[in-house]
């Protein structure tokens, strides 16, 4: 599958900060990595002819590490988001 565009990199970092702040109750020690990795595009479930960009970045609070994947339309409208705490249980 086609790789996502980095056109929405700035928006991905901003939205990742909002997501982690929401997830961790607005902790003021949140740090978002400005390294953004484009992943494979995904089909829009409402219209399979449209592809959505998936961008991945990491966030940190104290010793916690969080992987975030943000899904954008081609014009940088946030369509979805995923957060996963990176932990060995």
Helical percent range?
Answer: 10-25%
Low confidence ranges:
none
The number of helical segments is 1
Largest β-sheet summary: 6 strands, antiparallel
The helix/strand order is HEEEEEE
Overall structural class, as computed from helix and strand content, comes to: alpha+beta
> What is the typical, i.e. mean, pLDDT?
93
Shape: elongated
The total strand number stands at: 6
What portion of residues belong to β-strands?
A: 35-45%
Radius of gyration: 13 Å
Terminal-residue CA separation: 32 Å
Architecture blueprint of SSEs:
Elements: H1 9-23, E1 31-32, E2 37-38, E3 42-44, E4 47-61, E5 64-72, E6 78-85
Antiparallel strand pairs: 1-4, 2-4, 3-4, 4-5, 5-6
Give me some keywords for this one.
17% helix
Structure description:
The structure is a single chain. With 89 residues, the protein is α+β, with helices and mostly antiparallel strands. It has a domain at 1-62. 17% of the residues lie in helices and 44% in strands. It has one helix and six strands, in the order αββββββ. Strands 1, 2, 3, 4, 5 and 6 form a six-stranded antiparallel beta sheet that branches. The longest helix is centred in the first third of the chain and has 15 residues, at 9-23. The protein starts with 8 loop residues before the first helix and ends with a strand.
Question: What's this model, at a glance?
Answer:
17% of the residues lie in helices and 44% in strands.
């Amino acid at each position: 599958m086609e790789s996502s565009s980095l056109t929405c990199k700035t928006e991905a970092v901003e939205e990742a900060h909002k997501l982690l702040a929401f997830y961790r109750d607005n902790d003021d020690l949140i740090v978002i990595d400005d390294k953004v990795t484009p992943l494979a595009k995904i089909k829009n479930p409402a219209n399979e002819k449209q592809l959505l960009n998936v961008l991945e970045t990491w966030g940190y609070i104290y010793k916690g590490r969080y992987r975030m994947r943000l899904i954008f339309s081609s014009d940088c409208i946030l369509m979805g988001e995923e957060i996963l705490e990176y932990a060995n249980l």
